[in-house]
Amino acid sequence: MAVPVPLQGPDVLRDAHRVAAARRLLVEVPGPAAYDRLSGLAARLLGAGHAKVTLFTDADTVVGGHGLPPGVVGGPALLTGALSARVVQEGRPLVVPDARADVRVADLPAVTSGAVASYLGSPLVSASGRVVGVLAVYDGAPRGWRDDDAALLEHLAASVVAELELAAAHSAIGASLARLDVALEASAVGIWENDLRTGVVSWDERCAAVHGLEGAQEFTDVDQMLADRIHADDHAAVREAMAEAFAGSGEYAVECRALHTDGSVRWTVSRGRVVRDARGEAIRVLGTVVDVTDARDQAARRMAAVQRAAAVAEVAAQLANATALSQLAEIALRGARVLGASSSALAAFDGDGTLRLHLARRLADTVAAVAAEADAEVDLGEQGVAVELDDVLPTQYAARHGERLLFTDLEAAVDRFPQMAEVGPLLGLRALAALPLRVEGQLLGSFVVVWDTDHEFPDTDVELLDALTAQIALSVSRLRSEADRAAAVAAMAAANRRLQLLADAGRVLSGSLDITDQLDQLAGLVVPALGDWCWILVTDEQGRLHDIAAAHRDPTRRDDVAEYVRTMVAGMSDEHAARVVTRTGRPLVVPEIDAARIARALPDPAGQEALTRLAPRSSVIVPLVARGHVIGALGLANGADRGPHAPAEVDTAVEIGRRAGLALQSARLFEQQRDLADALQHSMLTAPPRPEGCEIVVRYLPASEGVEIGGDWYDAFVEAGGDTVLAIGDVVGHDRHAAAAMGQLRGLLRGIGYAGGSSPAEVLAQLDRAASGLAPGTMATALLARLERRPGEEPLLRWSSAGHPPPVVVDPDGEVRLLAAGRADLLLGVDPDRARTDNAAVLPVGSTVLLHTDGLVERRDRDLDAGTDELLAVLRGCAGVPLEQVCDRVLRRLFLPDAEDDVALLAVRVL
User: H or E element: which one contains 328?
Assistant: First the structure.
């Protein structure tokens, strides 16, 4: 509480310094609400009927009160003004239990009129020590005031002064920021910062604009930034100026040429200052940049402008560093966008306990637009928006109670917070996450992420949000307490490394289905992140352990680890950590590895020797777990220099073991099911015949994704009349039902076609009618061809297509043609009574016919026509090439590893 400054002169009320102090506060009074509230609080706590806050300049003005007649607030105090004036004159509390009996005030109008019978007033002392007003309570009846009453009123008076000083400070800050922003815009001064601890160089929008870039920029590679943005001839000058700043006074100044995005070169002047911590170590460089290209030929004017800009920029750099809290929401949004978030916000407590909301750019634009439509004003400036400390919205609730709130859709948010029914549609949000900012048990505010669509929150999303929140909390803590900065940055860096390691592990384990390759890459990731060297063992179907991967931080010692793992697997006892972990399913931490433990775990001297060469001092072994079953173990070991594993490293290793177990189990299941499906599919497709006068080659490749068997099929047989029948088809669907239907259609076609005598169109028509009765609801494409050879005539290919891709012919001279029918017939299973058509083409000896299913030429990223054109291009170089090689060449060019559909291929060479 401020102590009144002794006043000079006979009339305290007219003291010029006191009047100036009171006037400074009076002009910044935002309204009576806060002072009405404090007056009402004083009246309730002291049991008085009336209370008022009065400021005394050259006249008294009531700025708030309780129980006062209408019209008093905003004007003079009338009857009670004399009592308040006495408090100002004396500079101490005035306690009057019975006004009529008190000679000091008995003759005052307020007392003689009966308005005041008891009075208690406390002076309002400004930050400068001047008495600027009074907080008073009074009643129309006498009462005994206790010492506690006077003390309580003094505390409340201090709160009134704090409210007054806060309003004045906010006004001054707002005016200063506005003037500063205008000055920066007018002088086109850009601000830059080089954080020496993280290596990140940050440019504000004006600095980026000098180089023709849009918006603020961040660079993590200083050398690359110089190469891309600074003229090569000026690199040495820039580095020399920075070195001199570090070694000398700390002042940085250089003139250099900036490379603009439009190809031009701009002359700039950069000035800055090295910022050091309490130990004198340089932690960052803050500076400015000005484009002086247009003023270069006018040296005098240019130097004056640079000097003015540098002076303004030095202040701006300090303010930017102090108000960086407003930038955190936008920065954090860059990580949340991985999850598809549309915007974010940050609420943080000020030093006085006010919760201030800072919005990312998109959310801020939305709020501004909504306010404009409602003809309302909202200040979204650097200081943020002060929000009520209530529990009606998730932002405040998370900040006050420390509870993490996740709402997958707006309805869920409304159920918990009904006011979201109004806020959500206005801001265009559907899903929301509000997470408390907490450092060492202290709540600092909340971090809010919003989505414009419904969003589920799997564990991986929550982990990322928690990691982002931890980083924001550390940043807020850094800004509020510079003394804790080093510890906060270290913790944030450790959290980032663990998060990055888990992200990299997830990427490796989901990159392919080759589990050996995955685990080998995983071993390379965890070393040296979690240990000096490691091994990974997995169990087989009989539960026996096999070595899969090993790694050492020193690549030249990887063979030593591999040799140890081989001897370990061959000779380890039941007490070995690998067996204990796979048996119990729980991680095992060994902070100290001694000779006795080694002897128990490895009875074989060769294994003991191999382990001793690696010199482990501590280790942690975690299980590879999948669906409750342990299917392997991951072992990490540290040497003496590194020490035992920290709890966070153990937790990370356990999580990596869990993810590796799931990946291993999934790969095993996929391989088993894929082998089963492939075997079943091939069992239904027989080898082709070897008829006289032609060569037949077939191929079948299943889709790379999924394990379901499909409906693609081929067939070739010699009919009773001696002609060779060729068939290929594709049942709609890609599952066991399609495969079953394929088997039925193939069998029916073989039976109907073998008897001979019917044309391909008639055979397909009979097949369609038979299938509609035996396998209703089945639809398929099919192409049936008959290779006819008559004495004295060239071979003839007669075919009919049920919506299937047409045959492709490679003539003996290398010409490639598509045997497209004039009119496409319907698929099988659409209209069994519809007539079908035959087509015919002469095939000179040496011709090659290729039949295929649509999976060869059609993919998600390529339509059927484009795929067909590519097939024709491949076949143009296949004249005279052996038929087996033709099929291999086609599949190598057109069937990709990530194909989503099966492919059947049937090729015929006329001999």
Answer: helix 328-336
